[in-house]
Amino acid sequence: MMLHLSIPIQQIESTLFFYQDLLGCKATKIGNDRIDFDFFDHHLVAQLSPEEAAHESVYIGTLPNRYPLRHFGVIVNQIRYAWILERLMMHHAHFAMPPQKIFVNTPREQDVFLVFDPSGNAIEIKGIDDPQAVFSQQ
């Protein structure tokens, strides 16, 4: 089974750099108005539509800024999480939610951050070695 997701972007070049070079997602097709990515074994289509790209909508918890309610992401193991986070920090990525550990001392314990791509789309990356643990009721 594979998820397909289409997102609006403002620019081809910066989107290609962010997803391919920083997140490690292979661009499988590059056109004048879109890029298809292998987004962690899922099909992500980034389509030029500057007027639709980006929004911040709600406040949650103690975060001082508005949180992008509409976001997507991936759950990866801790090694991949650390690799992605290091690359994003090295390139001064804009975080909507800084890296933190949540659900501490529960089966769902995980590292997580929320980062904006160059078009303002929010991507949540979770680091947890057993992805099924996110469904724990504890």
Shape: globular
Number of strands: 8
**Proportion in β-strands:** 35-45%
Helix and strand pattern: EHEEEEHEEE
Largest sheet: 4 strands, mixed
Low-confidence stretches: none
Content-based structural category: alpha/beta
- Quote the average pLDDT: 90
N-to-C CA distance: 27 Å
Percent helix range: 10-25%
Q: What is the number of helices?
A: 2
Number of domains: 1
Task: State the strand order across the main sheet.
Answer: 1-4-3-2
CATH class assignment: Alpha Beta
Annotated CATH topology:
2,3-Dihydroxybiphenyl 1,2-Dioxygenase, domain 1
Radius of gyration: 15 Å
- Per CATH, which architecture? Roll
CATH superfamily: 2,3-Dihydroxybiphenyl 1,2-Dioxygenase, domain 1
Question: Would you kindly provide a written description of the structure presented here, covering whatever features stand out?
Answer:
With 138 residues, the chain is α/β, with parallel strands linked by helices. It has a single domain (4-50, 58-135), classed as 2,3-Dihydroxybiphenyl 1,2-Dioxygenase, domain 1. The protein is built from two helices and eight strands, in the order E-H-E-E-E-E-H-E-E-E. A four-stranded mixed beta sheet has the order 1-4-3-2, covered by helices on one side. Strands 5-8-7-6 form a four-stranded mixed beta sheet, covered by helices on one side.
